[in-house]
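Protein in question kept underneath.
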Amino acid sequence: MANNNASQLGGMAAKDITIHRIQIYPLTFVEAGIIEHRTAIASLQDGASAGYLIKAQAGGEVSLLELIAADGSAGTASVARISADSILLDGSVAMEKLVITDLSGNLVPNGTFAYGDFRGWKNVPSTASIAYINNPAAIATTNSPTEYVLRLATDAAADRAIAVVGKVTAKGGDLFYSRYDLASGGATRDVTIRMQILWYTREGGYISASSVTEANYASTAWYTRESYPVAPAGAAYGIVRILRVAGGAGDAYITNVELVKRRNGATLITPGGITTGDIAAEAITADKVTTGELITASAQIKNAIINNAKIANLSVDTIKIADDSVTKFDYSFTNGSVTVGGNSTLTLATLVLARSRNQPAVIHGSVTVDFPPNGDGDPAYIQIYDATNGEVVAGERISTSPNPFKVDVFGVDTRTTTGNTTYRLRIVTLNQTSVITTLTKRFIGALNTFK
């Protein structure tokens, strides 16, 4: 107990305090503590395990660090677990894969066959067995990622090659991540493996299946097959199974069977990419973005190559278009027939070309001629005529030929001008008073360049 006298105990006065008894009470009755636990065991059966646990607790809040290592005839295990509301890591972090889950962990029991048996699995077919990593009879197992692997021999009956892995609860829209490692063995190898989730309603009605299949695998090298199943609408649970499709050849080796429930909208990060339902960021910097569909409220693109685009409303401050890249083909065509006699000039088709650039124009005329002039051997001509300036741009002489025949005339108007120019496709006959010519399919056209 400390006595305070204002004349003796002040902010600047010398103090000699004798404490006879002191009791300190927390402001609240929340308890706090730290638990530390260590274990290290080496058994006589050539096995060993070690564990280290630190647990800090204050009221209902807990932070935990747990390290476990085990090695023995039943298998090996190495686990590091950190549990806290917030985990802060200084410096760089390297990992093979980061999966953000609902913390339920791997939903496949015994996915690595660590104990050398099928514990946790059901309906294991007679064609299935466990292979050890040092089995000299199987080349694939010598490089296997786990000590024990599942071996599925070939079977003509597919229903005998199905192993039920487990059961998961779900609702429509739940996201999952599944994977398995696969290799094949034998002199002849042709292996098709399928990992499935069969979705059912709460009443047990079948809905559909989510499958990931590796077909006709023939390599002894280990390969990881991944997928991202989504529970369908109305689903209440799923039955997970591994099956080998009937037929084929050789043995299938499988391990690291995994099914993880992901948080809706969360992210799976692997060396190959990021899989997520949504990315919210102030900025994304990338050399290349490949997407099937890009939806954005607004975008600023510094340099873009767009093959096809549909733009409802476009506002452009400055647009640069290469010369001769904005064009329109203007033409006039009439299928009906006209006739012409000797010593005549007849217009067959007319085109008014609105020229906007000071450059030459390329004109094409075409007509089908029936019963051409041949009375006294004097010629006739199919011409492209510039009616605005009174000049013939191009012409083609016609004479006796099998009926009917097509005449094409090409010409270049080398005048560099703007404004409207009237071009006519016409026929000119000379001294053929007794010959009547019929002309059909009359066409004249030009490529108009606007930029």
